[in-house]
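Example record

Each entry pairs one chain with its bound ligand, histidyl-adenosine monophosphate.
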Amino acid sequence: MIKSLRGMNDILSEDYERFTYFIDTATKIAQRYGYHFIETPLLEETLLFKRSVGESSDIVGKEMYQFIDKGENDVCLRPEGTAGVVRAFIQKKLDKAGGVHRFFYHGPMFRYERPQKGRLREFHQFGVESFGVDSVYEDATVIMMLADILKCLGIDYKLQLNSLGDKNCMPQYRESLVSFLDSHEDEICQDCKRRKTTNPIRVLDCKNENCQTLYLDAPKLLNNLCRSCEDDFEALKKILQNNDIVYEIDTNLVRGLDYYSKTAFEFVSNDIGSQSAIAGGGRYDRLVEYLDGRPTPAVGFAMGIQRLMELIVMPEETRKGYYIGAMDAGAVDLVVNLAQHKRKTDKVSVEYKAKNLQKHLKSADKANAKFCCIIGSDELKDETIWIKNLENKTENKIDIKDF
Ligand code: HAM
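Structure tokens for the complex follow.
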């Protein structure tokens, strides 16, 4: 038997209900905030991710589904959504047009990670990207939008917040961190030795316990911000407080992608095991420029749909639409005609086989229909249809022409 690849799952039945309920809810809220849908290809030039997510990141270094296509192009399945949206933004010359552009998207992403609960090789994200606003109010607004989506889905979360500084303060911080790492060269793990030369701040989220203890004494990002980054971070905290968004500061939150500056955040859940990050994002003011566009401030986030699915509190399901069946084989044609007629306005399930009433009622219940509508030989004769309301259990017979 051929099975799906490891870390790649089908979505169907009850999962699919949750999946579409999530997309519908998040879409409605993103549109309320003025975001427009964007779809970008699943396959992009590998260089796009090397230049945006960063060569030193685990994603580009180890996790890309990368191959040479039949035209000798070096391509890969997208590991995340931001890079493609930025590419599209520049390709459509929206950077040159100026103004504010806000997009949302959802779809599959691919990372060749070691699969475990909550960690897949194909997973789905819902994300938003806002271009053209450098105000910290926009950072706060995307965080509040994310909080709104989670609230609407009945999901509890913890928000972790940090500032990564900008081109004025980050290089200086990096230098002091590197000299700290140099002075502890013998104590840090192999991964951190490598990170020290590729992207030193990534050492801060090293999972090695010895490193973590050591980094308690490392210089802190937040103590090294320049005036403007510090003012923005203070303002962000105040806006969130004023809007009842609870957060904790995590000075070691550096995110796994290289394009961030200033605001970085993660939403985590205590209810889904070790892969607890349900969403993450931040500001990335330099990425448009890195990808050869006109410098444009930007901020966004992405949510991991599979991780959220088990947390969603689904609304109570109500019975909907009609179930139509025949008790007499001679009435099946009529049943099919009536079903087609009703489907113009309602959800209809139809049974093609003649069955007895008890069996029909059982099937109607399984289909979660509100009305079970049956034509037997009597009804066929006097051109009526028997209807039972499965909610309030009332029954009646009406003329077929009134159905
Ligand atoms: P990210 O933190 O890499 O950010 O991914 C966002 C979310 O996708 C995570 O919080 C997690 O819920 C989910 N996720 C990531 N990897 C997996 C996996 N292997 N299996 C299941 N779920 C996963 C980004 O992708 C950025 N593009 C977010 C962003 C948008 N920043 C600015 N704009």
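The domain at 322-399 is CATH 3.40.50.800 (Rossmann fold).
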